[in-house]
Design brief:
Structural class: mainly alpha
Order of helices and strands: HHHHHHH
Number of strands: 0
Strand content: under 5%
Largest sheet: none
Shape: globular
Length: 216
C-alpha cells in the first residue's frame, strides 16, 4: 500500500502524467532486455508508481510543515503516519488532481491540530477513538488491488503492532509531559482513521452501484 496520504491508484484513463509515462517506458525497456520477468512487470510497475507518489507526498508534507512553522514536527509526523498508512491502508482518490487537493487539505488540518489543540481530554478522546478504528478496521481493502488472505492477515498484524508500539511511545510522552509529541501522535492516528472511514464509504458505494447494476 502506498505511503502517500491519498495516492491515486485509480489514475485517469484520459491522461497520464509525464512521470508515469516515463516509468512505464523504463519498465518496458527493462523487460525487453530481460532484466525482469515479464510476469512481474505489473507488480514492479505498480510499486514504482506508488514509490513516486509516496516521495511526492512526503515532500509535500514537509513543505506544508515548513510554511506552517512546524517543519520539525512534520518530519516526526511522517515517521508516525507513514508506517500506519502502508499497512492500514485508507482512501484512494480516482484522479491525481483530487488526490493532491484532498491530501493538502487533510495535511493542513492535521498540522493545525498539532499546533492549536491543547485540551487534554479532547486529545485523549480522539486518540482512543482513532486507536479503536485503526485496530478494528485496518487494513482496509482497496478495489483496485485487493489483498489476498495471507496479505490481509500480515497487514493486520503489522498495523496492530505499529499501533501498540506507538501507544507505548504515547505513554512515555505523557509521562514526560511532551504535549506537542502527543498531538503529533493524535493527529496521525486521527488522519489514518479518517482515511479508513472514507475508503470504507467508497467500497460501500461501489458495492451498492454494482448491486444496482446487476439488479437492472
Amino acid at each position: 500500500m502506498p505511503v502517500l496520504i491519498l495516492s491515486a491508484r485509480h489514475t485517469t484513463k484520459r491522461k497520464k502524467s509525464e512521470e508515469i509515462l516515463m516509468l512505464e517506458n523504463l519498465i518496458y525497456k527493462i523487460t525487453q532486455e530481460g532484466v525482469i520477468n515479464p510476469k512481474e512487470r505489473e507488480v514492479i510497475e505498480f510499486g514504482l508508481k506508488q514509490g513516486v507518489n509516496s516521495l511526492l507526498g512526503i515532500i509535500v508534507m514537509i513543505i506544508i510543515g515548513f510554511f506552517m512553522g512546524i517543519w520539525g514536527e512534520s518530519i516526526i509526523f511522517i515517521f508516525v503516519f507513514v508506517p500506519l498508512r502502508i499497512f492500514a491502508g485508507g482512501y484512494h482518490s480516482k484522479t491525481q488532481f483530487r488526490c493532491a487537493m484532498v491530501s493538502i487539505l487533510l495535511v493542513i488540518a492535521a498540522f493545525c491540530g498539532i499546533i492549536y489543540i491543547v485540551n487534554s481530554f479532547f486529545v485523549f478522546s480522539l486518540m482512543l477513538f482513532s486507536f479503536l478504528v485503526i485496530y478494528q478496521h485496518a487494513p482496509v481493502q482497496n478495489g483496485k488491488r485487493p489483498l489476498d488472505e495471507v496479505e490481509f492477515k500480515t497487514y493486520k498484524k503489522r498495523s496492530r503492532l505499529i499501533m501498540c508500539i506507538q501507544s507505548l511511545i504515547f505513554i512515555v510522552l505523557f509521562i514526560v509531559g511532551y504535549q506537542k509529541g502527543i498531538n503529533i501522535l493524535m493527529c496521525a492516528w486521527l488522519l489514518e482513521s479518517v482515511l479508513i472511514f472514507m475508503e470504507k464509504m467508497n467500497l460501500y458505494h461501489l458495492c451498492r452501484h454494482r448491486y444496482m447494476a446487476n439488479a437492472e
